[in-house]
């Protein structure tokens, strides 16, 4: 939790997506002055009129409350000149081979370098985007140095501060982090960041820059492993008619094993786990390592959603012309984000089988429609239930616990208790 703030800092947030906006608005709430920078003018305009460009619980209220403490612009130079510290929060997506694409981070670094050229203040640049170990010092530092003509750790500060927020809980997580990791080299930058994070009452770990980069990857890889592990045990349990959720309740009681996150189901999606595990695999291969566990984590994850189709076909062998309901399109509840959602391979497989799809999600329809315009989108979850021959539960939105599943064939990828109790035919993907 957060204690009271100390002194006001002028902070630039470069890249106003899920991470950037939550970080910026969070620091505004703590009393700092924020300027958001983005290349996307739509986001800049929305931020300037206090409208959240993304859905995140509690964000809109916090934006309204702190109106006046932040503004947004596309102009790097002006924004950086008027600030002491810049967080780089641009996306670092996967390339075709799994490695991370640094094009946004590189163009951002270039702009930072240019803006720092005629700036005589000691400006601190903090990489918050997830980048593979070595990136900050080997890729970002030389670009800023070249463009600015200045020396890192002397003329300007440079640090790596990985972000651990969970989409859907991001505002809560900003104020209540489990830990804060700060990778730094020079004392001046270290003290600026210690001051900034002073109000947070949680363990703070100061490390080398590349160690901080690795902590983020190791954390996400471990969480992804927990899910694939739960799924593998779940698949075995299903054959043995053992309830995997009971099993992990028992497993989690061991104090060496934290009980959370053993979520057996159809696997993980989102903009982070798949991308980060792949990037770590690529990086280790580049180093001559063969990361067998990481590869297996991804393999289990890719197979798992297709189990829903296998189960469905046991009850409806020919899906051609059948109307299949899909409940949930977001990669997890409480977000509108569909990046790497398990709904994508499921909808693809259903379309290949010739099924007609009727889908619903409380927040993610607009984002999903861009990829699948041919799908019919319902106005409500009830509509999906009444109009379909069978229902697949893909995301565990809370409101799906309140539907009437009686008389339906339900294939459940997320363990919705109400469906378990009521459906005429109910199949859990690994329970
Ligand atoms: P996002 O795609 O939502 O946002 C990135 C933003 O950067 C976009 O608004 C884009 O327009 C902007 N941008 C791109 N190039 C730019 C440039 N040159 N100058 C200014 N703005 C630019 O991404 P995100 O989900 O916020 O993730 C950002 C980073 O944080 C990634 O490295 C990600 O791995 C990491 N991360 C994400 C999460 C999460 O839950 N989303 C959690 C922890 C870490």
Automatic annotation (TrEMBL):
Keywords from the named record: NAD, Oxidoreductase
EC code(s) of this entry: 1.1.1.22
GO molecular function, one term: UDP-glucose 6-dehydrogenase activity
Any one Gene Ontology BP term: polysaccharide biosynthetic process
Chain residues that bind NAD(+): 38, 43, 92, 130, 167, 275, 339
Binding site for substrate: 164-167, 216, 261-265, 269, 332
Domain UDP-glucose/GDP-mannose dehydrogenase C-terminal: 325-419
Name of this protein: UDP-glucose 6-dehydrogenase
